[in-house]
Amino acid sequence: MKKMRKFFFWNENGDEKETEQMSLSKAVKSVQGDFKDQFIGVEYTSKKGKEVSSTIKLPWGRKVRQAIAIEKKRAALKAKQQR
What we know:
The structure is a single chain. This protein is α+β, with helices and mostly antiparallel strands. It has one domain. The chain contains two helices and four strands, in the order ββαββα. The chain has helices at about 25-30, 60-80, and strands at about 5-10, 15-20, 40-45, 50-55. It has a four-stranded antiparallel β-sheet with strand order 2-1-3-4, covered by helices on one side. A hairpin with a 5-residue loop joins strand 3 (about 40-45) and strand 4 (about 50-55). The longest helix is centred in the C-terminal third of the chain and has 21 residues, at about 60-80. The radius of gyration is 17 Å and the shape is elongated. It starts with a strand and ends with a helix.
């Protein structure tokens, strides 16, 4: 069976969230709705046993980024039409 790893996330306000997933991507996607910040910290143990602590930029995932870009374009078009 594949190894489940524990991921610990936090933001500057002190909000903390812990999840257990197989990969970093799955873990970030599962908690990114809980944080409204642009950057969050993450700490976990890698497959080789190394302790990793880093910062992640949200949103994570192609569909999420594309949806935000489309929403910005719609808002700009709407503001242009109202002028």
